[in-house]
Amino acid sequence: MVRKNQSSSSPSEAEEGELSDSPVEHIDGIKAQNYEKRRNFEEEERGRRGRKDSREGDDKLRHRRVENGKRRDTDREDQRRRSERDDSEEEERQDRRREEDRSKGRRKEEDGDVKDDRRDRSRRRNECDDGQDNGHRRRRDSNKHAYRDEDRDSDRKARRMDRERGRRRDDKDGYKDEDSDSDSDSDRKDRRRDRERGRRRDDMDGYRGRERGRRRDEREKDSRRRDDGREVEGRDRKKVDRNLTESEINNDSGKGNENPKVVVQKEENLGRSGGVYIPPYKLARMMKEVQDKSSVEYQRMSWDALRKSINGLVNKVNATNIKNIIPELFAENLIRGRGLFCRSCMKSQMASPGFTDVFAALVAVANTKFPEVGELLLRRIILQLQRAYKRNDKPQLLAAVKFIAHLVNQQVVHELIALELLTVLLENPTDDSVEVAVGFVTECGSMLQDLCPRGLHGIFERFRGILHEGEIDKRVQFLIEGLFALRKAKFQGYPAVRPELDLVEQEDQLTHEVSLSDEIDPEITLDIFKADPNFLENEKKYEELKKSILGEESDDEADSDGGSEDEDEDEDESDEEEEEKMQIKDETETNLVNLRRTIYLTIMSSVDFEEAGHKLLKIKLEPGQEMELCIMLLECCSQERTYLRYYGLLGQRFCMINKVHQENFEKCFVQQYSMIHRLETNKLRNVAKFFAHLLGTDALPWHVLSYIRLTEEDTTSSSRIFIKILFQELSEHLGIRLLNERLNDPTMQDSFESIFPKDNPKNTRFSINFFTSIGLGGITENLREYLKNMPRLIMQQQKPVSESDESGSASSDDSDSSESESSSSSKESESDSGSDDRRRKRRRR
């Protein structure tokens, strides 16, 4: 029974134990199950997200590869087109260079003939003066001819090798044409045309070489003939000089050797310019010591004194002292020294063209007494004009044309020569020829209007036709328009003759007429000393002529006139001082206010910019008031509600007409940018678009952008808006590609360093982000490349200390490069960086 009770009691106890332990275990099991389910769910969710991210990353990578491939294809296509354009430009450049070389060769050949003549004349004088040995000269000439033969042979060999090389190239090209069936017909035609052009060029080179050799042979033959003639002439001259020296020595010994210095001075004063320089007082003393006034030595001394006196008088003449210079000039022998006088006038006028009217007045006075002087000067000026026109020597042509214009004003030259010259210049108009013609009409238009108005009307009709054709430069067109405005104003400001230079009565003047197509003899021999057998008689005749011109009592009258003139000058100076004391200065700037009012009303009342430009050009501006015109134009532009292209075109025209306005607009740009924070948004936008128009049309030079410094510290919100509108307008006007080419111009990099700074990575990033934010990120490609390579450049400059330092620096470089790329990239680069961060976290887990 006991066992039974024990056995029966055990199950109940077990059930009680199970009932007592089952709730806890059940709860723990449920928690464990929930934990396992939650962990499995999180793992599945994490795996699902990872797969989704990997798919998105693969899609983005695939898309990026496709975009990179398209970009590479477009870059290759652009590079191919650029290379084709560069090849075509290079071919055109080579063709132009060949044409220039050919023209230079022709010019050098023409100049070579003149230089050979000059060299032969100088060699002849040196050989006659120095008395060189004939045998030595023959050896030197033979060596020279041998060198020329060697040069000729080398040229022939070079031409032969070039022709052979061209034939081989033609054969090779022909063989390729036969074998290459895949080539297009256009390529075959191009190669065939190139071969034909090469053959023609070789033929022309061979012809030119043969022609050059023939001319060289002719010059050598002429030089040999001249050398033979000089030998005979030199021997005869030596004999004559030897006989003269012996006879003079005998005369001096018979006279008791009273003047022993004469023979020594004969050897010293040989040569074209009279030998070494002799001071005037010493020359006068030597002339006194010479007893024989008709000797060659005395004539040479008087010639040197005449040359120095004429040069000194011509060099110091001006509008105030010309009345005093003229009597001194007539005191010299102008008949003997007319060549010296003409040469001195032409050289002085070429050196200082501003005094051309003074030299013309001096020639006009001399022409009344000595007409041969005016005629000789006219012939030499026309010859100088013809040479300058053939050689395209613009400065010399301008000087000659200006001299002729003022001689026409003085009526020394006939007006038909002026009309003939204008006809030649405008027959085949170019920029330079039209500019020269405009300057000529400006100088002598007032006189031509009085003498031959119909001829001047025909010339202006030709100017109008050239203007309508529009084949010349804009600057020259503006010059023609200014000439028409000057004609309408009856050449005001350009009188024919100034009152102080009107020295000759009209009935006393002698007018010369020489055609431009005639053969002209400049009579160069008049500039060189020649012994005169009737020297004393000619000097006495000129003395009598000088007395008849100046009067016997000219000296006394000059002294009395000088005293009276001094008294008059003292009285005039005292009157002027009193007037200066009584002058009233207006400090209220009434004239300036009236000028600004006139400019404003003219701008606002004009229909278009051309009318406004013509009206504003008629306003008389005093020196220094050109700036007011630019300021008022900019103020009127800024006051408009919206920008009007009318103001940009008007400013462009003023910049193209006169460089002074261009400089003033540069100053206005600097001033406006420094005060840009004071302007309202509307005014700021109008000013920026105005200067963008001037920069886009090249009316304003691009170096003004160097004043802008694009950094975070140096800019304000107003200045950033100004720069934004300026560059956006430039991109719309020029296009992003042309703007990028302008900004990458190597000659202008110094001016653009402040806009694209490379001194600090912070400033570089700021510039890149600024242009990217305004939609002009394409112009910062070079700056991005520089920022990308900046860590590498820094690492190359620094010396590595250890391997750990190198790894640290490499990691810092990577971080810097990643920061720079992240700051300059768009939204896609940000998403890429986010995906990279997620991948790193997954790897760590």
UniProtKB/TrEMBL annotation:
Residues 594-710 form the MI domain. SUPFAM superfamilies: ARM repeat. Residues 1-267, 547-588, 797-845 are annotated as: Disordered. It is found in: Nucleus. GO terms for biological process: mRNA splicing, via spliceosome; regulation of translation. PROSITE patterns: MI. The gene is LOC113701114. InterPro entries: ARM-type_fold, CWC22_splicing_factor, Initiation_fac_eIF4g_MI, MIF4G-like_typ-3. Belongs to the CWC22 family. Residues 23-85, 93-128, 143-177, 185-245, 827-838 have a biased composition (Basic and acidic residues). It comes from the Eukaryota. This is MI domain-containing protein. One of its GO terms (molecular function) is RNA binding. One of its GO terms (cellular component) is catalytic step 2 spliceosome. Residues 246-256 have a biased composition (Polar residues). Residues 552-580 have a biased composition (Acidic residues). It comes from Coffea arabica (Arabian coffee). Keywords: mRNA processing, mRNA splicing, Nucleus, Translation regulation.
